[in-house]
Amino acid sequence: MLRYFVLITIFSSASVLQAEDRTPETLSKSEAELVSLSEELYAAYDKLHTRAEKITDAIEKEKFYTDNDPSAKYVNRFVEFERTHHGTHAGLMAARRLVILGAGGGSLNNPCDIGRRHALKALRDYANAAELPEIIRTLHGGNLEPESESLLRHLMNNSNVRDENRMFAKYMFSLWALTVRNLHRNWERWSKELAEGRELHFPGEIEYLTRMQSLALAPEKVTALEREALEILYGINSSNSQVRQPGVKGIDDNWHVIRFDLEKTKTMPLVKELASGLLFKEQHLREGKPAPDLKLQLITGEDWSLADQQGKTVIIQFSFKGCGPCEAMYPDLRELAVAHKEKLVILSIMADEIKEETTDAVKSGKITWNVHWDGDKGPVATQWAVIGFPTVYVVGPDGRIVTYRLRGERLKAKIAELTR
Fold this sequence. Notes:
By secondary structure, the protein is of the alpha/beta class.
């Protein structure tokens, strides 16, 4: 069910992107057709999830998802739409939808994987589109796809590609390469845990891992990718580049069609700041490393420092209003805060564009722990290289990072262990 969870994340995150004061723009006929097709897709997935929620047996639910997955039908329609509108803005938006769908993972070579592969090849012809960075920024997600590397190398090595897109492609290549390395490390750890007799987390877990490992690259290839990624990041970080991550605006209510937004771009982080964040993460945010100090101001006006929490377990959650999986964690965090109140500290770093959205979540009682408002693409999230929500770090009583992978019952078990 991994792919369906990611799709829910993508769809539920759309609302945070919408600006209340955006000026409506007129859609072209072809763009309006794309919006209609996208709305059909939303409705199909909504219907699928509603029906699936009534199924209690995990194996039966997984089979239901597989048997009723609407992606094959809609991926084919988006692929055909891109082909018939190739080279137009509507065609670019169809490719964007295919890339987003492909970030969901799932079984190898599933329809969304195939659709993304088509889009990655087609995107070479959109290399100078101002919206391209926003489209390729999810290429580190989903199943390992060689075509992602091909596209990114094309963009960053082609002198005919505009400087902004080439610079962002270099950053994305580095993120993609380090993600590939992390995938291989995760597979190795996962295999070791299962070999040592760890209880299965879901039916078919061993078979799923085996399929994922069939994508594994040669160790020397992984090492070469890591080395190249770090060299690129150091180069960007030491440059004088003032290129920013492009900002975009939604043209329709649900952001199926986007356009470059010059004014918003002025508030976006520099690509060199994004590169610096990835380097910071490599150097300081690995499991077992001493956690870097984090000093910030809570929305109550109080100063907060991670160093002051020494001797306690700390959960740091990056979240925002409208992020379904983020808000799904709140009941567990409230429970943990009560159960381990003397030994546990929780901090949510909120990426809400408007501060009032953060304060409202506290006033409503949804969030009952420490909260810092970081803002959209804020300085803390940028420094910590947060690229997905929720991102959750657990820091142990000794001040070292324990994990950044756990949620739900596994998170509860780990906190119980650390606060014992």
